[in-house]
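Write out the bound-state structure for NAP.
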Amino acid sequence: MKCALVTGGSRGIGRSICQKLANAGFHVLINYRSNTAEAEKTLGSIADTNGSAELLAFDISNPEEVKSELGDWIDSHQSHVEVLVNNAGISSDNLLIWMKSSEWDSVLDTNLNSFFHVTKMVLKDMLANKYGRIINIVSLSGQKGMSGQVNYSAAKAGIIGATKALAQEVGKRKVTVNAVAPGFIKTDMTHDLPEKDLKKLIPLNRFGDPEEVANVVEFLASDKSSYITGETISVNGGLYT
Ligand code: NAP
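---
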């Protein structure tokens, strides 16, 4: 069975990606950190539409946990991960002058270093099978740079660079690596932002829905995207081009 691993699948954009990929016929590994109740809701919604999925909890910022939990899954299953969506992320905003080391480290560990730990685990099988899709959820913040988000912008810009570099390493094996850069999307992450004021800056005059990001991920995860690699696709309502 074709498997897709989605990090941060319990809520927000990740949940919508899990639903789309399950609907497209993948057995979805729903990763999350601690919110089992929300992860169960993602799983339930997939079961309701006769999709196939399972929960796989581990902290992507903890290399030992990634190795033990994801490593165990890989060792104990015949099927391999054909699609990896590096979606899980956090923000911890502060002006750099006030930023604590812990705010810098947690954002870099979760948004950037996790890419290394998780991707390495599944890449071997993709290369051996001469097929794979790696999709990294980055951000407008990593393209443009956002005040108050030096940590987050640095992490997301780092992933955009990693996307381009890895695409060059693995293209010959028919593994593609792309990024999707959302603008303001309605999730827990943006819940406290003043949508009424911010939407005036957006040409499409609204925040996006998680599904509008997931649609692009579904395309990149499919055979239809076979000649696209190393690319970052913006989903931001025209806010930044
Ligand atoms: P969200 O609603 O806050 O959900 C975050 C998800 O990531 C949850 O499933 C959470 O799991 C998981 N997660 C966080 N830290 C983790 C860790 N260490 N290990 C495993 N899972 C972890 O976020 P979102 O808005 O959907 O964002 C998804 C991605 O899009 C992120 O990479 C974010 O940076 C990016 N993005 C979002 C926006 C936006 O406007 N929302 C804009 C640009 C980019 P638990 O439920 O267990 O906590």
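---
Residues 87 and 146 are 20 Å apart (CA to CA).
The longest strand covers residues 175-182.
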